[in-house]
Amino acid sequence: MKKTALLLITAAFFMLFQQKANAQLYKGAVGLKFGGYENGITGKYFLDKSAAVEGILGFRSKGLVITGLYEIHQTAFNVPALKFYYGGGAHIGSVGSGYYKRYNGDDEFYDKSSLLIGADGVLGLEYLIPQSPIAVSLDLNPRIELGRGPYFDIAPGLGIKYAFK
What is the number of H-type helices and E-type strands within the chain? Predict the structure, then answer.
């Protein structure tokens, strides 16, 4: 079973990475990001045909987190409007006292305000709806938290953006 899963993951990896980067479908976008930890406002700007930077101003219970990501985009599964993307970056923010959900473990209680700082990754798919300026994305966001840790966690993310050509 493990060998089959590894084989499928490896095959999917090669299918995704065999595609050459095509011209991006839009130059920039703004929208909403719904994540495992924060929900907020996102902006993405393409630096060239395959590289983009994304900034997220995330709001969470009693806190605010700013995240910056550098992403590489490639056509996925030979569908021009579907892009596979991956990358990394960092976050900084703060939260007040209270209980906070951790996706990779038990909930944690913060007895006072805390600084959040650490490294982030992103791995996902984005689809620009044809004949529309709307892009939707689904991704996984691994995070190493140093301010309250160190600990590693991973959370899902869903985005909807208005794209500017």
Answer: 1, 10
pLDDT in tens, 91-134: 999 888 776 666 666 677 767 788 889 999 999 999 999 999 99
Paired residues of 82 in beta bridges: 127
Q: For the whole prediction, is pTM greater than 0.85?
A: no
The pLDDT tens digits of the residues spanning 17-27 come to 444 444 578 99
From CA 123, how far away is CA 135, in angstroms rounded? 16
Strand, coil or helix: 147: coil
DSSP designation for 96: -
DSSP 77: T
Running DSSP on this structure, what letter comes out for residue 22? P
Other beta carbons within 10 Å of 135: 21
Residue 103 is classified by DSSP as: T
Pair of tokens at residue 112: 């006072």
Q: What is the pLDDT of residue 51?
A: 96
Q: Which residue has the tokens 């089959």?
A: 4
38's tokens? 């924060």
- Maximum separation of any 2 CA atoms in the chain, in Å: 50
